Amino acid sequence: MSNGKMKTAAALALLVMACAAPARGMEALPASAMDESHIFTVEVLQVSDIEPYQEAMDGFLAALRSNGIVAGKNLRLNRVKIDFDIENGGFWSRLGVLMRIREEATRIAGAKPDLVLTIGTPATRYARGILEDAHIPLVFTAVADPKEAGCVSLVDGGEGVTGATLYTDMDDSVKVVRQLFPAVRRIGMVHTDDENGVANVAAATASARQMGIAVSSRQVGKSDSIVPALKELFSQGEGVQLFAVPLDTYYGLRKFEPATDLGDFGAEHQIPVVTLAMVRMPGAVLYVGADFGFVGNLSGLQAAKILKRRTKPDVMPILKQDTPTVLIDPERLAALKVALPPDMLERASRGKDGFWQIGAAK
Known about the structure:
Layout: H1 3-20, H2 31-34, E1 40-47, H3 51-66, E2 75-82, H4 91-111, E3 115-119, H5 121-133, E4 138-143, E5 161-165, H6 170-180, E6 186-191, H7 195-210, E7 214-219, H8 227-234, E8 242-245, H9 253-268, E9 273-275, E10 286-289, H10 292-309, E11 319-320, E12 325-328, H11 330-335, H12 342-347, E13 348-350, E14 356-358
Helix pairs in contact: 3-10, 4-5, 6-7
């Protein structure tokens, strides 16, 4: 056979093999994998507009940028913030918010974005069913307890859902408090009916009890002043020896009035104030808990895998911060005449806003 005929036969053989190959092997790659100019679309849904949520959003976008997904370049964002009067919101107001979440979720399902980010528990809990039916990947962030957001467990988001949680082991947080204030045996906590606040106080009470520390708590209304509860718990110096702040929206109301009043009360009576949530707390000497920005960044890393690799949310576990962030206000520590324990001092580094950070978040 001549060389020309041999080449023709070989070409025909290759053609026959190609036609016989499974169709899956001939499928085109997703446009996003073939065309660098592909624009990703992400919808963001949250209830209320609070500072920690913005920190989570900033962390989310930073993670996307580190993976080459940049807003205004190859990322189109649409963010909806549903207003809710946390202080005065009653049953009908809460019902209205639920309806708004479902309306927005229905609109998003029709828009068919590449991914949805929900910030906080309510948006995640009430939007997920509609988005699951529409087969739109959902990533959540800033959720205190995934199970309260409809997840199977602390690590399994359920069908079509994954994300990152603020959940940390309360034992670790209480150990840090005990390390800095070893003489404290009575802790006071003030909370409202906020779901996260109630759960936070219950977890702190259980953990502290194992370490020989009693927790006394008082529940107040969201419009109530915090001062009467503080006076009752302090009991003219015969009551609690330290105040711990739970993850409760109450402390951010009225331009942080409850937080400011607690800080002033602690300063006047030389009683330490610590917060078990990484939110602004005037007068707090110790902050210990999950960092909203860090958790938002974890959610962004998951979103990048979904957008760039088409990874299904179901196969990715819910992420969390392994060890709590620990920040100390050195000025407040000095005012309380408390020395930083040597092992903490060895791990201390200068953090933002003049705070000391003990160890690094991971």
